[in-house]
Amino acid sequence: MVSTTHIDLRLRAEKLGVRTEIIHGASIISAICGITGLQNYRFGRSTTIPHPYTTRSGKTSVSHTPYDTIKQNQESDLHTLMFLDIDREKGCMSIKQGIKLLMQVENERNEEVISDYTLGVGVARAGSAREMVRADYLRELERLDFGILKIGICLVNSITANLSINIFF
Fold first, then answer.
1. CATH T-level fold of 26-168
2. What's the whole-model pTM score?
């Protein structure tokens, strides 16, 4: 129960009279640390990259929250774990789409928070036999096909992280 979505689902189920029980186990956050070699205490606040949405005026808008989270984490030299949105109508966001949205916000704000040469790690199907983990610059990660069941993108922010990345990749 590490995200608001988990808590929300439990509360909704209980409102409907569905009994729930928490069975503690491994989390995607600990899995990300294990498969990337990045240490959990070097992560700042995580965020979700949501699909673009349409405003009441009919304009398509892209959330700046992930960008702001990256910026805050960078100021403390911390990694950022970004989950990719899942929407009933739009489906699962791809790593490529997530990177494009981040770059779109960078191009709008021009604060040099991220660039094509920002080091990132793309993760898909963590914990399965078909797990895929790739560390590279964002421009290279954007070109890769991670297939289905993408989990997220980690942006790496410290010199010590580069050592971990080199060990695992």
1. 3.30.950
2. 0.81
